[in-house]
């Protein structure tokens, strides 16, 4: 076992898969320059053919990666910051997501598109979005949002081996969290949720960076005699709703903590599924702890209170227990 940060785990996953499979390569803006620290020494070890800097054109990155995947390669496209994916919407939605379907299964699109979410750090409105709910509405895309070093490494490796396009949304607030990872190779399957903490009184479903906040809230509430179960979906599409419903059946209460904006959020989808399929198990209304429907301000004092925190989650739990 070795103590590994979330950011280091991303690099380990890509390195292991590139060593295992010569069809895996990386492309994106400044990937050869180790912009965020996840491709250290990659050019020296794999060469510029497999670690390719691109022009500043997200549409070109998405299009080239999708075409390469259809031609038999397994590209990892790095979009640097998640909102930059908006510039590539036509390629991602019209081509990446739909090609396997529109060609009747004659082609596969085994591409991974990575994007870090840098919210909560004074990056202002254009750089602070958490856009995974937007892509959850698009059939044909698998979407993952790991919250720990263990999960991001195992899920990214599984994503690279998957024959469908996978969007990997990495939470920048988790970058420097660390844990012991196994020395031996491991994979974390896509589409399987994880119960991060067992509990009996209320279920808290956390998304991405809200998971550590939910666990901190659970610790706080334990001192008050409240037993909180924390569930991390890990994969947002396809989502493991069976695990969530089973937890709600046990606890009878649900709080969903999601850093995305409230309207059409992952939290809204989870709440809808539980209301439709687990209504009779509920002993209180579902509560969503999300970001208000406003643009993210540049000023840190204005930005900080917007996102799910352990305090906001704990308050929501107390409300459903009243």
Automatic annotation (TrEMBL):
Chain ranges of the Transketolase-like pyrimidine-binding domain: 4-176
Names of the cofactor(s): thiamine diphosphate
Membrane-spanning ranges: none
Keyword annotations: Oxidoreductase, Thiamine pyrophosphate
Name of a matching Pfam family: Transket_pyr
GO molecular function: magnesium ion binding; oxidoreductase activity
PANTHER family attached to this UniProt entry: PYRUVATE DEHYDROGENASE E1 COMPONENT BETA SUBUNIT, PYRUVATE DEHYDROGENASE E1 COMPONENT SUBUNIT BETA
The name this protein goes by in its record: Alpha-ketoacid dehydrogenase subunit beta
Organism whose genome encodes this protein: Pseudofrankia asymbiotica
């Amino acid at each position: 076992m070795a103590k590994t940060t979330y950011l280091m785990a991303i690099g380990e996953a890509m390195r292991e898969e590139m060593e295992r499979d010569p069809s895996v390569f990386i492309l994106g803006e400044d990937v050869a320059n180790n912009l965020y620290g996840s491709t250290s020494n990659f050019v020296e070890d794999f060469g510029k053919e497999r670690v390719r800097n691109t022009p500043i054109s997200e549409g070109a990155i998405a299009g080239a990666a999708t075409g390469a995947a259809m031609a038999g390669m397994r590209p990892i496209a790095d979009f640097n910051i998640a909102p930059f994916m908006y510039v590539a919407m036509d390629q991602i939605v019209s081509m990446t997501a739909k090609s396997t379907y529109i060609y009747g299964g004659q082609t596969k699109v085994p591409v991974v598109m990575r994007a870090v979410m840098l919210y909560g750090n004074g990056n202002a409105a254009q750089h602070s979005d958490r856009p995974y709910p937007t892509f959850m509405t698009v059939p044909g895309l698998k979407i993952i949002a790991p919250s720990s070093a263990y999960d991001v490494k195992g899920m990214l490796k599984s994503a690279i081996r998957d024959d469908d396009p996978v969007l990997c949304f990495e939470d920048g607030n988790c970058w420097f969290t660390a844990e012991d990872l196994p020395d031996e190779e491991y994979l974390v399957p896509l589409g399987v949720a994880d119960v991060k903490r067992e509990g009996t009184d209320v279920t808290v479903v956390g998304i991405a960076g809200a998971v550590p906040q939910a666990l901190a809230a659970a610790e706080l509430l334990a001192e008050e005699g409240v037993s909180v179960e924390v569930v991390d979906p890990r994969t947002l599409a396809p989502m493991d709703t069976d695990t969530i419903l089973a937890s709600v059946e046990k606890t009878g209460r649900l709080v969903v903590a999601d850093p995305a904006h409230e309207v059409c959020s992952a939290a809204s989808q989870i709440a809808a599924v539980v209301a439709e399929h687990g209504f009779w198990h509920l002993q209180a209304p579902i509560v969503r702890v999300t970001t208000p429907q406003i643009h993210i301000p540049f000023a840190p004092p204005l930005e900080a209170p917007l996102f799910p925190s352990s305090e906001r989650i704990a308050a929501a739990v107390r409300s459903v227990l009243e």
